[in-house]
């Protein structure tokens, strides 16, 4: 996947990206599905190993096997098979191909995981985007289809208005099944219209689009739909609420919905018999209303900020009929207004059949444990999920005064030191929670009191995992304070394991530094870390 990401580092467009666009592009790339082919194993190296007797046994294989082989090759290598024989030409013409535009770049681009040379020809820098658009047009026109997988992410479509329409027409005519189509924009909020021709690609089963203005749906025919679409990713789009509602209504078998970096306050109404996963990340969310979702299993919110201003964010999360919902998070008690059934959950809300979601096994919360208005809501949230088995807590800095409704000083002040001692019984803590993970641990009194409450009341707790915040080590004074404090607790389950780790961010920083020291031999090979390294401007 790094070979695709590294494509964006070439050319003038990348150099002119502003910092916000650079960060969002990296986030979007980490959320995209990986192409099913890789340029790291070109056909030429495979052909070098010929049979000792000179007999071509591969060409004698059944046509269905040969098509399977060709379909796993990058587009350039798949096209090269046509020179082998007439039979191989027929195989290529009848094989559903995979096209990744990064693999069409000229030789100085990534090949077998190698970086381009340090000395870059200015002609290549300026010409690469134009050549890439032309190469994509030729590749789409040359093959009769169908296309199994299309990945287009390297062209500034504002400079190629004719191509965006042409490409979608060709893909619709040739039965594209999976499509990633990103506009290579330079700035956040770039207003480039996505053609409504997209709705003619009715054969799609997976679709990811990014950095576009979504077409207005009011003028589309009522029959417009994606009847086979199972996975949909909307990445940093300009999109109206009514157009999102129209789109979701036209995907009758949709199973996964991802919205990341949305440039408008999104309001999602989930009413589907097919949706199993909804993820909303790095954007504004005014409301998520799960009305009726009989198959929904995961509802993930991460850095999904509310509306109303930086210090007065609010957002509604409504859970209606979702009998299979197993994961919910990350809820922010100071920002999210949780509503179950027709009941808004408040600090004084008592658990009842009308205020609980018994199917949830995993819950994530993002909370300032030392801030009264947020910490007081946490026990109420936990009581809503009586069968909870795994709890993830992202501990936030109490000094940061963003998100959450502005209220009286009695609500926003520091938490009483006796709060958790007087919290009362919580069914999931006492009977069901087996694992608690707390991230961004700073060693504050409020964090220690919360951990001690869990340790002394969770009777079946098997693991308590703590990740320190950036800059604090388990071996320093904060780590020693944690060990001494937790040793004084009267653990409800004496067999529970307490595991302490440094911040994963610290490890990534080390890897990125190593990669910069020796760019030809980076120590980090994971895509998430590699993407950060690739998108770091020199």
Describe the structure.
With 538 residues, the chain is of the alpha/beta class. The protein contains 18 helices and 18 strands. It has an 18-stranded mixed β-sheet that branches. Helix 8 packs parallel to helix 9 and helix 17 crosses helix 18. The two termini are 21 Å apart.
The portion of residues assigned to helices is: 25-40%
Count of alpha/pi helices: 18
Tell me the strand percentage band: 15-25%
Largest sheet: 18 strands, mixed
Q: Low-confidence parts lasting 5 or more residues at pLDDT below 50?
A: 44-48, 109-129, 406-410, 507-535
Radius of gyration: 26 Å
Shape descriptor? elongated
Q: State the end-to-end CA separation.
A: 21 Å
Structural class: alpha/beta
Overall pLDDT metric? 81
Count of beta strands: 18
Could you give a quick summary of the protein structure above?
The protein is α/β, with parallel strands linked by helices.
Key features?
single chain, 538 residues, alpha/beta, 18-stranded mixed β-sheet, 18 helices, 21% strand, elongated
């Amino acid at each position: 996947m790094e070979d695709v990401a590294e494509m964006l580092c070439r050319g003038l467009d990348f150099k002119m990206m502003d910092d916000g666009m650079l960060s969002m592009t990296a986030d979007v790339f980490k959320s995209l599905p990986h192409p099913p082919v890789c340029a790291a194993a070109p056909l030429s190296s495979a052909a070098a190993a010929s049979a000792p007797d000179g007999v071509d046994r591969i060409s004698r294989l059944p046509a269905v096997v040969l098509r399977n082989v060709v379909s796993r090759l990058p587009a350039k290598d798949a096209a090269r098979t046509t020179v082998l024989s007439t039979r191989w030409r027929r195989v290529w013409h009848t094989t559903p191909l995979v096209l990744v535009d990064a693999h069409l770049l000229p030789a100085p681009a990534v090949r077998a995981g190698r970086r381009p040379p340090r000395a870059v020809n200015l002609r290549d820098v300026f010409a690469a985007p134009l050549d890439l658009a032309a190469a994509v047009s030729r590749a789409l026109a040359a093959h009769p289809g169908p296309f199994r997988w299309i990945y287009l992410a390297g062209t500034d479509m504002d400079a190629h208005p004719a191509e965006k329409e042409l490409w979608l027409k060709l893909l619709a005519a040739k039965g594209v099944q999976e499509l990633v189509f990103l506009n290579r924009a330079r700035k956040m909020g770039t207003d480039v219209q996505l053609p409504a021709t997209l709705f003619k690609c009715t054969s799609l089963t997976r679709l990811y689009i990014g950095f576009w203005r979504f077409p207005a749906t009011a003028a589309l025919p009522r029959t417009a739909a994606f009847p086979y679409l199972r996975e949909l990713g909307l990445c940093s789009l300009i999109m109206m609420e009514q157009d999102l509602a129209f789109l979701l209504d036209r995907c009758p078998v949709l199973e996964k919905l991802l919205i990341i970096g949305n440039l408008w306050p999104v309001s999602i109404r989930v009413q589907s018999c097919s949706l199993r996963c909804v993820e909303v990340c790095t954007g504004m969310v005014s409301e998520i209303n799960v009305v009726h979702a009989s198959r929904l299993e995961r509802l993930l919110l991460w850095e999904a900020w509310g509306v109303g201003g930086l210090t007065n964010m609010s957002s509604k999360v409504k859970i209606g009929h979702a009998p299979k919902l197993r994961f919910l998070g990350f809820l922010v008690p100071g920002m999210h207004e949780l509503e179950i059934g027709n009941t808004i959950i408040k600090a004084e809300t008592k658990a009842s059949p009308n205020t609980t979601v018994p199917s949830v096994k995993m819950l994530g919360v993002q909370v300032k444990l030392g801030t009264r208005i947020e910490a007081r809501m946490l026990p109420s949230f936990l009581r809503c999920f009586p069968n909870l088995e795994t709890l993830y807590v992202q501990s936030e800095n109490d000094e940061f005064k963003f998100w959450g409704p502005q209220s009286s000083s009695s609500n926003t002040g520091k938490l009483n030191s006796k709060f958790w001692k007087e919290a009362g019984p919580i069914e999931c803590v006492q009977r069901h929670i087996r694992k608690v993970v707390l991230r961004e641990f700073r060693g504050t009194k409020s964090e220690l009191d919360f951990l001690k409450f869990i340790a002394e009341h969770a009777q079946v707790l098997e693991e308590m995992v703590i990740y320190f915040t950036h800059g604090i080590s388990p071996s320093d004074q904060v780590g020693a304070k944690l060990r001494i404090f937790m040793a004084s607790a009267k653990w409800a389950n004496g067999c529970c394991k307490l595991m302490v780790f440094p911040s994963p961010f610290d490890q990534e920083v080390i890897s990125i530094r190593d990669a910069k020291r020796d760019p030809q031999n980076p120590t980090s090979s994971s895509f998430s870390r590699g993407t950060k390294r690739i998108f770091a401007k020199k």
